């Protein structure tokens, strides 16, 4: 009997079974399409700048992305493209304190300390982890995970609608959900889904 090889998650480096579609730890897709590098782009959720596939950060504003480089899964690229075209990503956004908006495009993205630069006091800013939460999309549904360093959870935790999600698996998001960072009501974000967006 031959031992089945595992797929390494590109974001948190957890070993997963080959038949799995998303990482069991962080929820990121394991079978990212092996698309043509010149056609697959990453749109920055902060400034909407178009970046090359595999970029770790936005070349316009510096926003850090979760790693989205393709993982070889044994599937043919053409099949991946067909599956990708079938399930279009729903529109969504995160409303930040103060009213600014981060557009979600389906690519995994961190909400991080740098997203609050100039919008809050230095004291509050330092309660936010560098990559505090991870928002990902799977099968047309958005999820949030308290991420922190190496996916082990943020220093000062995250609450989803008043419930602490530190150290838990990703949680699904619905329109109007409140995400409170670092135990600070002033750092509460609001998730807006397709139905509520114009």
Tag the structure with descriptive keywords.
198 residues, mainly beta, Tumour Suppressor Smad4, 6-stranded antiparallel sheet, 4-stranded antiparallel sheet, 2 helices, 7% helix, globular
Written overview of the protein:
This protein is mostly beta strands and 198 residues long. It has a domain at 92-196: Tumour Suppressor Smad4, CATH 2.60.200. 7% of the residues lie in helices and 26% in strands. The chain contains 2 helices and 14 strands; from the N terminus they run ββββαβββαβββββββ. The strands form 4 sheets. The protein has a 6-stranded antiparallel beta sheet with strand order 6-5-14-13-10-11, with no helix packed on it. A 4-stranded antiparallel beta sheet has the order 7-8-9-12, with no helix packed on it. The longest helix is centred in the middle third of the chain and has 10 residues, at 77-86.
Strand order of the largest sheet: 6-5-14-13-10-11
Compute the number of helices.
Answer: 2
Major sheet size, sense and barrel closure: 6 strands, antiparallel
Structural class: mainly beta
**What portion of residues is helical?**
under 10%
Please state the overall shape, judged from the principal axes of the Cα atoms: globular
Series of secondary-structure elements, N-terminal to C-terminal: EEEEHEEEHEEEEEEE
Q: Kindly state the mean pLDDT as a whole number?
A: 80
């Amino acid at each position: 009997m031959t031992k089945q090889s595992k797929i390494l998650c590109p974001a948190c480096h957890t070993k997963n079974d080959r038949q799995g579609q998303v990482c069991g730890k962080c929820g990121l897709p394991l079978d990212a399409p092996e698309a043509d590098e010149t056609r697959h782009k990453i749109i920055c959720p902060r400034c909407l700048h178009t970046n090359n596939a595999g970029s770790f950060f936005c070349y316009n504003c510096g926003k850090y992305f979760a790693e989205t480089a393709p993982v070889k899964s044994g599937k043919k690229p053409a099949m991946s493209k067909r599956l990708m075209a079938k399930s279009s990503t729903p529109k969504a956004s995160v409303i930040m304190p103060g009213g600014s908006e981060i557009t979600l495009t389906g690519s995994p993205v961190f909400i991080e300390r740098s997203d609050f630069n100039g919008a809050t006091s230095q004291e509050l800013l330092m309660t936010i982890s560098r990559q505090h939460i991870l928002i990902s999309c799977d099968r047309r549904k958005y999820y949030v995970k308290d991420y922190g360093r190496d996916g082990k959870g943020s220093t000062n935790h995250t609450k989803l609608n008043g419930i602490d999600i530190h150290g838990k698996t990703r949680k699904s998001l619905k329109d109007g959900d409140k995400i409170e960072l670092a135990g600070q009501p002033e750092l509460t974000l609001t998730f807006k889904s397709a139905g509520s967006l114009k």
